[in-house]
Amino acid sequence: MDQILPDRRTSKAAGPAHTPRPRARRSWLTGAVLTALMQGMIALSIRSVSGDLAFALLGSVGLVVGAFHYLFPGSQFFSLALANFIGVYACVFVFFLESNFHSIPSHIQAAAFAIPLIAFLGGAWWRADTIRSIVMSRRLRDGGHFDRIFLWMASVWGIGALTFLLPGREVSPEMLTAIFLLSMSAIGVVVALVARDIAVFLLDAGLLFEGFFQQAARLVLPAFAFLTFYSLCIIMFGAFYTILDRFMVEPNFIIDGVRRDLTFPEGLYFSLVTFATVGYGDIHPVTGAVRLICGVEIVMGVLLLLFGFSAIIGHAAPRDRRDRDGPL
After folding, report:
1. Dist. CA 238–CA 32, nearest whole Å
2. Strand partners, 44
3. Which residues fall within 8 angstroms of residue 14, CB to CB, at 6 or more apart?
4. Which residues contact residue 170 at a Cβ distance below 8 angstroms, ignoring those fewer than 6 apart?
5. Which residues contact 50 (CB under 8 A, 6 or more apart)?
6. How many CA atoms lie within 13 A of 51 on its CB side?
7. CB 264 within 8 Å of CB 288
8. What is the pTM of this model?
9. Within 10 Å of residue 235's Cβ, how many Cβ atoms?
10. CA distance 107 to 187
């Protein structure tokens, strides 16, 4: 009599669902570190535009993310998405600031930067119950809300686009400051009214962040193996170019306009840009033999990238799908 073995996947599905908390916690920690690094880089970059604005960015991230974490506890990835969204908003704000309002005093710039963020906090507090249910649902929404996202984004961008009508006109500094504050206040009103839709947008972004970091964790080992082999190929060709230059009568390369022997660091550099098919042109071969070797290296580099990425992505696939597909 044949014995019917229970399906392992069915047994797992029938049992209690266990959430991989340690993995999620590690993913959140990785995301938090990357977010902090990005915010710090943005703050240092915009400090040349306005020191007050850089402090406003860091303070706003801490205040808004902290307030949201207090209002909606347990929403780690939502908070990360919000922090990154503030960073993107800071970059767009600086672009419009430099284009149309560069003469505005720095303290007014910092205050205006905070207006939409404070409005978002107010709108979130006003609709706290609705947003709390959205944040705690932890599921991607269907595509039905994209039209609402487009509408509020178009409204905000439209207000910003109207400010480009100002540079060609004679506007006094006082009037320019008033227009600037009025524009940011109008954006703040829009943000406050659509706080729920922004929360949906950030929730989807946060869930995608979580999936990305969990997927990236499975890529570490295969990516390291790929980069190791990639580096060995570059070193091998770089050493070969250097050795070949030593044993041939005339130099095989022109380096910065001078035909001379290739050093080993220069050989590694040339091998890297050739293997990556970049070819800056500061070092280029002049003999047929070396050009042939360069062609072989280029083809090998392209093939290695294709097969390497395919292997990495295949390794990152869920284990049950790899078992089902079987070996290649």
Report:
1. 39
2. none
3. none
4. none
5. 97, 106, 109, 110
6. 0
7. no
8. 0.59
9. 15
10. 19
Higher pLDDT, 316 or 263: 263
Could you state, in order of their start, the residue ranges of all structural domains in the chain? 28-217, 220-325
Query: In one letter, which amino acid is 217?
Result: A
**Sign of torsion over alpha carbons 60, 63, 65, 71:** negative
- Whole-angstrom Cα distance, residue 305 to residue 311? 10
Handedness of CA 158, 163, 169, 171 (dihedral sign): positive
226-232 average pLDDT score:
88
Q: How many residues does the chain have?
A: 328
Mode of pairing for the β-strands spanning 258-260 and 283-285: unpaired
Q: Which amino acid is at 14?
A: A
In CATH, which of 3.90.1150.10, 1.10.287.70, 3.40.50.620, 2.60.40.290 is domain 220-325? 1.10.287.70
What whole-number distance in Å separates Cα of residue 254 and Cα of residue 286? Answer: 7
Task: Locate the DSSP E strands across the chain.
Answer: 253-255, 258-260, 283-285
Measured between alpha carbons, how far is 81 from 325 in angstroms, rounded to an integer? 35
Within 10 angstroms of residue 81's Cβ, the number of other Cβ atoms is 24
Number of H helices, E strands in the chain: 13, 3
Tens-digit pLDDT profile for residues 122-135: 888 888 777 777 66
Q: pLDDT per residue over 140-178, tens digit each?
A: 555 555 667 777 788 888 888 887 776 556 778 888 888
- Give the residue among 286, 208, 211, 227 at the shortest CA–CA distance from 253: 286
| Number of Cβ atoms within 10 Å of the Cβ of 85 | 18
Of 16 and 312, more confident: 312
Q: Is the dihedral of CA 227, 233, 236, 241 positive or negative?
A: negative
Q: How far apart are CA 104 and CA 174, in angstroms?
A: 9
Tokens 């690094």 correspond to 37
DSSP state of 262: P
93 closest CA partner among 127, 128, 53: 53
